[in-house]
Amino acid sequence: MSTTEPAPPLPDLPTRDVDRSDPDHRRWLQEAVRKVRAESGRSADTHLLAFPLPEEWGIDLYLKDESTHPTGSLKHRLARSLFLYALCNGWIRPGRPVIEASSGSTALSEAYFAKLIGVPFIAVMPRTTSSEKTRLIEFHGGSCHLVDDPRTVYEVSARLAAESGGHFMDQFTYAERATDWRGNNNIAESVYGQLSRERHPEPAWIVATAGTGGTSATFARYIRYMQYDTRVCVPDPENSCFFDGWTRGDPDAASETGSRIEGIGRPRMEPSFVPGAIDRMMKVPDAASVAAVRTLDRVLGRKAGGSTGTGLWSSLRIVAEMLAAGERGSVVTLLCDPGERYLDKYYSDAWLAEQGLDIVPYARTLERFLATGDWTEPAWPVRAGTPA
Questions:
Q1: Per-residue pLDDT for 386 more than 50?
Q2: CA distance linking residue 117 with residue 177, whole number of Å
Q3: N or C terminus: which one in the chain shows less Cβ crowding within 10 Å?
Q4: CA 193 to chain centre
């Protein structure tokens, strides 16, 4: 059930200290960890899709299709890691809710895992979150607490956790540390394994958008740990502070409004965003992101969310740079979640008009590039690319 009222408090905890060595509590914890790890064992790896480019370019572009997870997005991996991290730290307790600040996909995946281990779940989300995401969260047994100002999701989540005796999962703090970036079947290890028989098995670039920043940190750390030469680019949408904070080296960078591209871009520099691990950032117009997901649908017959478009636009721009420089190699980006969740947004001309977004010039850039190899993008106040 979606609400703007405070979540109803659960019964008070006993006034005495909770004894976590109690056999019943330990049995519950062991069973909860078993269930989450068993779910991982039942899950197959996700596909690495080839995006068609002219063979003579000598450049390959792939999309890691994270939409095939049980909850339909890249955030399924993160939610599993966050639950294991919190359970093993003793932060999640039987009968007490897990609360998360999220723009939708993480909350959906966390609702799934909360239901799996039998604890309540509350998602604190901006009111602009797509209705399909709120429906899916509720389908998995969670409840949605909607806020008008996206900047208040952290404060409201912490308050609800205090009121209910629950645990604020806080993905924006713990995403980069909950995932084992050295291996353990993380997304980076998976990509390199899948590329092992390709003509360019070590990609020149991996392009990963940032919401928490956990995925880009996982890729970058794994690449350095394994001593690869791959570079990591993080595209950033409008109304997000990550690009400004990275270029200026400003940990206090902030944005006044929330991102229109659900799942990525933040109004503050999040603790899980690791600027020093990133080689390059691009600022991407929202209209370009939407044009890119519609191009993906036209070329591959796959609808995807706006964050996939942000990554795809940046990836094709990098391919254009490699082509112009006579370089060969491969580029990998992510298909983060399915576009069916956004039919009333990124695939709606009425929504585009309401937002004042003109995707036609960006769609022409992509169409011309894929046909001729010429990249000429519309002028924009902030150019995408590396800082001077």
A1: no
A2: 22
A3: C
A4: 21
